[in-house]
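Task: sequence design from structure.
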C-alpha cells in the first residue's frame, strides 16, 4: 500500500505500477491522526513539507520501506530516525530549480516596484491617474544582489540577475565552482548584508540557518534594501522582520515561506512594505507534475528493491 498524506494535483498511479494499491484523500490533506492510522498498513509514504515524519510516525508504520518527500527540502523528516530503521528517504531535487528561481525574481521585482500596492489601488478605485511621485520604488537594473546559498536555485537566480546587469555577490560555507562564470563573487555574510540592494535566501533550514536573518542581521542591511525568501520560513525571524519593516530598518520584503505556515506574523499581514505569497515557488503545472512523478518513481524503485535515484540517505544501501 502506498499512502499519500495529501491529494496530489497529478495522478501518480501510472508510475507506481499496476499491482500497487494507492491511498490518498480525495481533497486536502490527512490530519495527523489520519496519517498515523493510514501508515499502519503502508509500505510507502508520499509526504509533503508540512508532514512531520518523526519517530512517532515511523513507529506507527512498521512496514514502511520508503518515505518520498514531495519537495526538495526535507527538514520535516527525521532522516536519522528513518536511517536507523533502514528506510530510504527521497526528495525532488533539480526539477523545481527554474520555477523557484523565477518566483524569487518575481517577488524581488514585485517588492521593488510595489506591484501589489498598485494592484490594490487600481482594484479599489482609489487611483486617480498618473502622478510623478506615485509609487516610487527601487531600481533593479544595475543594483547589487546578495545571494545567501549559491546552490542550484541560487545559481539559477544569479543567471537571471545577469540579464538585469546586476552585481552579484554570494555568501556560503565554501567557494562555489562556476561562480565566476555567473559573475558572482564570494563575500562574508556581513559584507553581503551591508553591500546588497537585494538579499535573497536560498539556503536549507538547519540549526545554523534558523533565524539567520534576525534583528542583528537586519540592522546591517541598507535602509533601502529588500529581503526575498523562497527558502524556508524559519531562516527569518518574522517578528524581527516585521519590526524592521515598520521602523524603516530595511525597505521591503518578498516572502513565499513562513515560520509557522500557514500562519503569518500579523504585523506582516498589515504591512504595505511586504509582498506575501502562499509557498508557490514551484507552482507551475510542469514542475508539480514532475515532482509527483519523481516521488512515484522513487517509491516504485524502493519497493522493487532498487535504490531510488533521489535517495538522501544512501548509506542504508552500503
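Answer:
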Amino acid at each position: 500500500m502506498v499512502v499519500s498524506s495529501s491529494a496530489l494535483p497529478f495522478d501518480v498511479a501510472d508510475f507506481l505500477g499496476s499491482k500497487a494499491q494507492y491511498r490518498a484523500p480525495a481533497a486536502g490533506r490527512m490530519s495527523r491522526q489520519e496519517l498515523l492510522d493510514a501508515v499502519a498498513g503502508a509500505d510507502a509514504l508520499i509526504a509533503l513539507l508540512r508532514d512531520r515524519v518523526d519517530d512517532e510516525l515511523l513507529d506507527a508504520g512498521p512496514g514502511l520501506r520508503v518515505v518520498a518527500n514531495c519537495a526538495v527540502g526535507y527538514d520535516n523528516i527525521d532522516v536519522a530516525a528513518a536511517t536507523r530503521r533502514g528506510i530510504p528517504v527521497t526528495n525532488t531535487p533539480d526539477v523545481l530549480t527554474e520555477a523557484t528561481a523565477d518566483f524569487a525574481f518575481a517577488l524581488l521585482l514585485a517588492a521593488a516596484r510595489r506591484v501589489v500596492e498598485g494592484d490594490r489601488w487600481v482594484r479599489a478605485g482609489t487611483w486617480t491617474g498618473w502622478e510623478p511621485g506615485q509609487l516610487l520604488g527601487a531600481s533593479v537594473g544595475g543594483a547589487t544582489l546578495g545571494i545567501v546559498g549559491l546552490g542550484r536555485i541560487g545559481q539559477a537566480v544569479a543567471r537571471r540577475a545577469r540579464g538585469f546587469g546586476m552585481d552579484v555577490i554570494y555568501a556560503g560555507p565554501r567557494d562555489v565552482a562556476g561562480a565566476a562564470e555567473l559573475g558572482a563573487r564570494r563575500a562574508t555574510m556581513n559584507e553581503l548584508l551591508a553591500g546588497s540592494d537585494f538579499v535573497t535566501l536560498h539556503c536549507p533550514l538547519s540549526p545554523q540557518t534558523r533565524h539567520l536573518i534576525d534583528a542583528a542581521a537586519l540592522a546591517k542591511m541598507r535602509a533601502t534594501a529588500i529581503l526575498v525568501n523562497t527558502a524556508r520560513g524559519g531562516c527569518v525571524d518574522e517578528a524581527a522582520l516585521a519590526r524592521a519593516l515598520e521602523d524603516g530598518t530595511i525597505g521591503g520584503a518578498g516572502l513565499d515561506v513562513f515560520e509557522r505556515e500557514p500562519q503569518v506574523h500579523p504585523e506582516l499581514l498589515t504591512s504595505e512594505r511586504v509582498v506575501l505569497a502562499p509557498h508557490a515557488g514551484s507552482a507551475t503545472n510542469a514542475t508539480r507534475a514532475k515532482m509527483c512523478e519523481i516521488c512515484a518513481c522513487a517509491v516504485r524503485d524502493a519497493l522493487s528493491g532498487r535504490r531510488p535515484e533521489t535517495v538522501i540517505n544512501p548509506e542504508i544501501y552500503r
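The CA atoms of residues 120 and 126 lie 9 Å apart.
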